[in-house]
Amino acid sequence: MTTTRRSASLLRVALAAFLLLAFACCLLRVTNAQVNQPTPSSVRHVMANERCRMQSGSAHGYCGLPYELSNFQGRHECEDRVWIGRPTSIEEMQQMVSMSAKVQGLGVGHSWHKELFCPSHNETGIGIVTTEMTELRSPIPLASVGSDYANPLDEQIAYAPEFPSDYPIWVDEEARTVTVAAGVTQRTLLDYLSTYRGPRNLSKGRGWTLPSFSWFIDQTIGGAVATNTHGSSLEHGSLSNQVLSFQAVVANGSLVEITEASHPHLMRAMRVNLGRLGIVTQLTMQIEPQSAVRRTLEELTWVQYIARLKQVQSEYKSAVARGSLEAVKAALAPVWDTQIQWFPPLGTVWWASYERVEDERTRASAFDGASPSAAATNVFNQDYFGGTPPSYMMATIQSAQFWANWFQGVIRGNFASGVFPNRRAYVSLSDSQNRMHSMNPYDQYEVSVPLETAADCLEELGAATYGPYALWSGTRTPMLTRFVKGEDGYLSNTHGGPRLYMNMEDFVLYSTGRRNAAFQAMMDILRTSDKCKARLHWGKAGWPEHGSCFDGAAEYPESWCDFGCAVQELDPNRKFTSTVDFWHFNAQRGGDAYDLTSEAGHKACCTKDGFSHAKCKCMSRKTCAA
Fold first, then answer.
1. Which residues of 483-515 are buried (b: 16+ CB within 10 A; e: fewer)?
2. pTM (2 decimals)?
C-alpha cells in the first residue's frame, strides 16, 4: 500500500511539473510574440477563424493570407511595408495592377518559397490575393458523405448541386472541361466535380474529376498550376499540363486569354508561370468521368524497393535507346500509376499502385449538415499574426522511429487497398489531416530526378541515409515519391523528360530552433550528386540554400530563354519580378550579348514562337553577387 501511495505521489508531482513546464512554454511563446511583433497602425484585426480561405474542414487559425503576406502557417513573412490587395472583382484587380510598380498574385499561401511569392518591397509593391472575389465569398455547403460513397476517411465534401448559382465553377460535360476561378482551392474543385451531375448526366451519376491531382489539395488552383503542382501520372502529367486556357491580368492591366490555338508560345510559358507573367484569374482544365479504381498497397523493404526501381530504370533506358515508344511505356508500366511512401527510420516503403476496373459498387449520395464560410472584407493594410508556434511534442520527442510509426498510423487509411472512385482512390490529405498537419510548423521540400538515373540516385541517397551518419534521424514524416511525364511547359520540372519526384519535410527546425543537419545533408546529395541532378520544386522550401546562384540556363537549357521571351512580351517593365534573384535571361548572337528582357534582346533573339535557338545561344547568368 505504501509503495502504491508513493508511486501515486510521484506521478502527481511529475504531472504537476509537466503542466508547469507546458504553461511556461506557452507563456514564453506569448511573450516572444508580443516582443517580436511590430505594432500595426490603421489595421483591422480579424479573428483566427476568419483568416483562412481553405475549405472549412481544412481551415485553421495560423493562415497569414488574406490579411498578412505570409504562407499558410503564418511563416515566411514578406516585408511589412508591402501593401496587400483584396480585390472583390476583376475590374478592381486590373486597377491595382495598373497603379503599382511591383505586383505579385497570391492565393492561400501554400508555399515555402518566400522570395518567389513576396512582391518587391518598394514604395508601391503590392501582393494581390485572388480569394476575395465577391462570388468566392459565398457560403459553400458542406455535407458529410456516407460510407456507401466509398469515403474511407470520413471527410466532408462540397456538395455541387447546392452551390450558389454564381459560384465560379462551370462544367461543360460535352467538352469534358471545367472552367474555374483561380482563387478556388483544389479541394473545393475536386469535391464539386465529384458530386456534379449535369442536365444530360453524361457521367452516369458518378461525377467528374481532374485526371490527376496532388497529395496536398488545399492550395488555390491558380497557385497550384503556377508552381507545377502534381500528382503521380506518367499519362496525364501535372496540373499545369491539364490546363487548356488561361485568363490573366497582365502588366498593363489588360485582361487577356491565352490558349494553345491562339498563343502556343505564351501557353507553354503560362503553364508554369510562377506569377512572373501576370495574375491568373481563371483557368479551363480537362476533366473525366469518375470511375472505379482499385488501389493495391504493398509493403517493401528499402532493399526490395531499390531493386524494383533499378529494374524499371534499366528497362526504361534500354527502351529509350531503341527509340520504341511502345517499349518505353511497357518499361514504365510498374510506375505508370503509382504513389510511394518511404519511411527512412523504419527502412520500409509503401508502394501503392492503381488500376481502373469495372464498377464494383454503387455510389449513392448520402449528405447531411452544412457549414457556412466566413464573410470577407476589403482592406489594403497588412495585419500581423504570430504564425504556427513550435510543437512541444516535436521538440520533446526526438525519436525519428517514434514519429515514423506515428505518421504511419495517421495515413494508413489513405493507402489502404480497396476499390474507390477516383477522388478517393488517389491519395490526398483529408481535410482534418491537413488541419492537423498544419498545427506543427514545418518546411516542405521537393525535388525531381530524371528517370534515367532515379534508381542510382536513390541508391546513393540510401547508402548515406543508412550509413554511419544515420541521416534517417533527421526525418519525421515519410517521403512521398511520385512519377510525372515529360511536359512542354517551359519551366515544368519535367521539361526534357519524365522524372521521379520526392517530397520531404523538416519538422525539426521550427520546434527545436536547431538546423536539421541530417535532413539538409540528404538535400545536398539530391542537389549536388551527378547521379541525381535534382531540380527544386518552384513553390517549396530549399530556396535559396539549395538554389544559391540558381542558373536557369543551366538547369533548363532547352527552355529557359523561351520563358524569357514570354517575360518581355507580357511584362516589359518587370512588374511581376518578386524578390527572387534568378530572373536573368541572357543570350548571345554572333559576338553580341543581349538581355532578352530588353527591347533589343527581344528583337534579336525572340520570335512569335519563342526563343530563336537557331540564331541565338541561351547563356548562363553572370557571376552572382557576393
1. bbbbbbbbbbbbbeebbbbbbbbbbbbbbeeee
2. 0.88
